[in-house]
Design brief:
75% helix, mainly alpha
């Protein structure tokens, strides 16, 4: 009885967050922008955005698999649930949910799951920096944005150098050595000891999962995911009948994602519109049409995955936790 009540309480609470999130959207303005939009182009934009999300989840699964969670289906469900919860929680709370979901369902230590997410997010940042550098080199930019070229190139060299050093310094570690590490000989006592144990395992996991082939694959998937995001932005503008240059779509994409480092509002509503409109306005796009396009993009990107994500969350909350075996044998490098 209590389990049923708790299940419904959590479900209702999640959907209450969803309703609160929906109230922050200017649906009248979004409807005005969408009403005259081309349906076929919106379908293509939705497909491109979905492909971007799936590529990011596959990138995460590339690190989850050798960590001891080989199920692509689990990664897909947890990834979508985490993405959806990110849109209703502040400060990227969905990322913490991903750790809990996968650890509970697979029995992989939470520190190891956190390490896979840290690696996956690291490559999202690398892809972001590559897109900044590529954009400043390929497209003519307004004078206000020209100054980003050199800092972006320096940052890219530093980040890639850091990744190369991580691969080199951990070249002798493999998921097998991680799996054979004792889970806990003596359970830590006290908050400081527990935190220290967690981050020790986190560091070991990062090292064991870091190798050249996985890094190349993750970087490739990251770039493809960002390309599909550019396509999504460009198709939404075209669907609304508003001329937004490709360079402006790229700049708008990069600007709104700077605001996603830490979500100040659920779904980043308001911040998204401000960043996008202010950026594309520098390319000659009037502010009011830019706001309309930003609402169309955000509605397309956020609403479907949020509904699906929060619907999946209760499944993970009540999934029976798998016990972690003392020693897990694997031959995957």
């Amino acid at each position: 009885m209590m389990r049923t009540v708790l299940r419904w309480s959590i479900t209702i609470a999640i959907f209450a967050l969803l309703v609160l999130f929906a109230r922050t959207v200017d649906w009248s303005a979004a409807w005005t922008a969408m009403r005259g939009a081309s349906i076929p182009l919106l379908v293509l934009a939705f497909a491109a955005n979905t492909m971007s999300i799936l590529l990011r989840i596959i990138r995460w699964w590339m690190f989850l698999r050798p960590a001891g969670s080989p199920s692509l289906g689990l990664a897909m469900k947890a990834g979508i649930a985490g993405t959806g919860l990110n849109n209703v929680l502040l400060a990227n709370g969905g990322e913490a949910a991903r750790v809990v979901f996968v650890s509970s369902a697979s029995g992989v230590p939470s520190a190891t799951v956190l390490a896979t997410i840290a690696l996956e997010r690291m490559f999202d940042i690398v892809g972001f920096i590559v897109m900044v550098v590529a954009g400043t080199l390929i497209f003519p930019l307004p004078p206000e944005m020209e100054g980003y070229r050199i800092p972006a190139m320096i940052l890219l060299v530093v980040v890639l150098g850091g990744l190369g050093f991580l691969v080199y310094s951990t070249r002798k570690m493999t998921p097998t050595t991680l799996a054979e590490r004792p889970v806990e000989v003596t359970p830590p006592v006290g908050i400081i000891a527990k935190v220290g144990s967690f981050f020790k395992w986190f560091g070991a996991s990062m090292g064991a999962l870091a190798n050249g082939p996985r890094f190349v694959g993750a970087l490739t998937l990251s770039l493809l995911a960002w390309v599909f995001q550019i396509i999504t932005f460009a198709l939404c503008a075209k669907a609304a009948g508003i001329e937004v240059p490709l360079a402006a779509s790229l700049a708008g994409l990069l600007a709104v994602n700077l605001g996603l480092v830490l979500r100040a509002t659920p779904g980043n509503v308001g911040v998204f519109q401000f960043a996008y409109a202010l950026t594309v306005e520098q390319f000659g796009v009037p502010r009011d049409p830019a706001i309309a396009v930003s609402l169309l993009i955000q509605t397309l990107q956020v609403l479907p995955v949020t509904i699906i994500g929060v619907a999946l969350a209760p499944e993970f909350v009540f999934k029976k936790r798998r016990r972690t075996p003392a020693v897990t044998k694997t031959t995957e490098n």
